Amino acid sequence: MRVAKNVIITSCYNWSGGVLNLYEYMGKDIFREYGIPVPNGYVVSSPQDVKKFTNPVAVKSQILLGGRGKAGGIKFAKTDEELKNAVSTLLSTKVRNMTVTKVLIEDMLNIKHEYYVSIALNRAAKSPMLIASAMGGMEIENVPDDKIFKRIIDPSLGYSDFIGREASQFMGLPPELSKQFLDILKKLYNVYRGEDCELVEINPLVETGDGKLIAADAKVVIDSDAIYRHREFSIQDPEKTPLELKAEGKGYAFVELDGDIGVIANGAGLTMATLDALLLHKGKPRNFLDLGGTDNVDIVINAFDLVLEAKPKAILVNIFGGVTKCDTVAQGIVEAKKKFDIKIPVVVRLSGVHEVEGRKILQDNGIEAFSEMMPAIERVTKVF
Q1: Taking every annotated instance into account, which residue ranges of this chain make up the domain ATP-grasp (predicted)?
Q2: Which domains, from first to last, does the chain contain?
Q3: Are 295 and 321 in contact (CB under 8 A)?
Q4: 326 within 8 A of 295, measured Cβ to Cβ
Q5: CA of 36: how far to CAs of 104, 198, 202, 213, in Å?
Q6: Res 96: pLDDT
Q7: How far is CA 268 from the centre of its chain?
Q8: What are the per-10-residue average pLDDT scores of the chain (384 residues)?
Q9: Per annotation, catalytic residue among 201, 207, 244, 256
Q10: How many CB atoms lie within 10 A of CB 297?
């Protein structure tokens, strides 16, 4: 098992199909373990961590978006002063609106040619797919289709060298490069399977001046459903607020927004629909909180605790009960109101299992409850 690493789960309004997206330097750590050649390098989070300059280096901001180079997120240094300036500059700025908290310093490569290679989950085929091109160094979406090699890999058979030979021939690789390429493909597939990946990508895969193939970049995306098999990863997102990190620690999908209506709903789709409906009625959501499927009063109480900490002017609860029972949620709301002495308006929509019982519990405790979403939305936008 590898030592703990900091990673990010990509998130915003889209909580479906979540993935564990690793920084470049983490991907390269994994590549090294599997024997894929990568440049020598090290990571720093402070200018004081920079080692003594010995040779020209690339200084690369560690963010989870592409296009770093065009956005000024990659710099090159040929002197000690240039290295220190590059590190200080990148660590004190944002690249593509992403906070740079770490930079990767690695040997500058003598690039002769750039290739592209990846293994990605093809959802339609329910199988991994090899994608390769002799036109690396650019977004694969911008490469003409006739310049891209694609081949489905039967997961019951796994990767075979004949697939790699087809790709090598398609790309026009000479024999010595082809031999290295096949070795890298085999190891890349091992990474894909061994690390529960949805995507492993090298762009560019560089041919150096002395005829070596080296992974100049690394993108590794792990299926979030497999996190339980990867306890070596600790979750940390520099873009998250302290309250979002607190919610994450408690197991809630939570995003702070800039409005004034706190939102609690169950299921990512319903929560997102609730935000859209509020905006349609000129309401401004203060947060996104997905309660999930639960039949636990304490989970409801803790959700209120988080939303109240965001200091909204009103709270909207939108529940469509299936696994989540409406009377349980209602009891949690009542107990939360008493525990936290809630003075701001609370409007609730309850529909589904035990909805009649749930709405009666709320109404008996002076909390407005509706059976449909839109009347609740309309009401909460007018209560303050």
Answers
A1: 28-263
A2: 1-38+110-237 (3.30.470.20), 40-108 (3.30.1490.20), 242-380 (3.40.50.261)
A3: no
A4: no
A5: 18, 18, 10, 9
A6: 85
A7: 15
A8: 42 43 93 98 96 96 86 95 96 87 96 97 95 93 94 95 97 97 98 95 97 97 80 64 87 93 95 96 96 91 97 97 92 97 97 96 96 97 92
A9: 201
A10: 17
pLDDT of residue 19: 66
Q: 94-107 in b/e burial notation, b at 16+ Cβ within 10 A?
A: ebbebebbbbbbbe
Question: What string of DSSP letters covers 278-313?
Answer: HHHTT--BSEEEE--S---HHHHHHHHHHHHHT--S
Residue 238: predicted pLDDT = 65
Alpha-carbon gap, residue 12 to 15, rounded angstroms: 7
pLDDT of residue 170: 98
- Put simply, whether the predicted model's pTM sits higher than 0.85 gets the answer no
201 is catalytic: yes
Q: Count Cβ atoms within 10 A of the Cβ of residue 14 and give its class: 0-12 exposed, 13-18 middle, 19 or more buried.
A: exposed
**248: amino acid identity, one letter:** E
CA distances from 77 to 72, 86, 92, 259 (A): 14, 7, 17, 44
Give, as one character, the DSSP assignment of residue 109. P
Q: What is the DSSP string of 147-216?
A: GEEEEE--TTT---HHHHHHHHHHHT--HHHHHHHHHHHHHHHHHHHHTTEEEEEEEEEEEETTS-EEES
pLDDT of residue 1: 38
Catalytic residue among 23, 25, 115, 116: 116
